[in-house]
Amino acid sequence: MKCLFSQYRGFLPLVTLLIGIVLGGFLPHIPLHAVATDRAETYLIATGLLDTDVEAVYFLDCLTGDLFAAVPGKTSGGFTGMYRYNVLKDLQIDLAKNPHFLMVTGLADLRSTTSRGYGGASVVYVAETTTGKVVAYAIPWDRSRWNSHTPTQDVLRPVGVISFHNVQPIPPATKP
Question: Among 27, 49, 76, 100, which is 20 to 30 Å from 130 by CA?
Fold first, then answer.
């Protein structure tokens, strides 16, 4: 048996590769979407998917409460979408109480033609630990403006707010 493996040593990797290719052809192709978050003293940064092939980068200045979002241009010409919002009022924060912020992004298909005009495929969640409030914000995304290389400046839209200090359970829906 030992002699058999030594004769066909180069054959085993080739067979393994072929099996992998065949199995890969039968398995569904699911795209991966990675996000990143980080912080440096008084600044937070996160990325989030905005459309199928576009993501936004979010910055939160913890000293002022200013939340910024930037969207890269369709060509290699920098950022063409700039969005801004101050989160202090929504989170009911007193800056004198030394607030502590957290920020992450998540997927949420908010494409809408209503007057609220969220657009985009993600939200950014900003939490403040002393108040216990979390607010979701969305970019009023317009793919046609991005496709036409039109520079955009707008305001981030608050989607909703919740307090994690006193979350009440939601009773299950009763069936009729």
Answer: 49
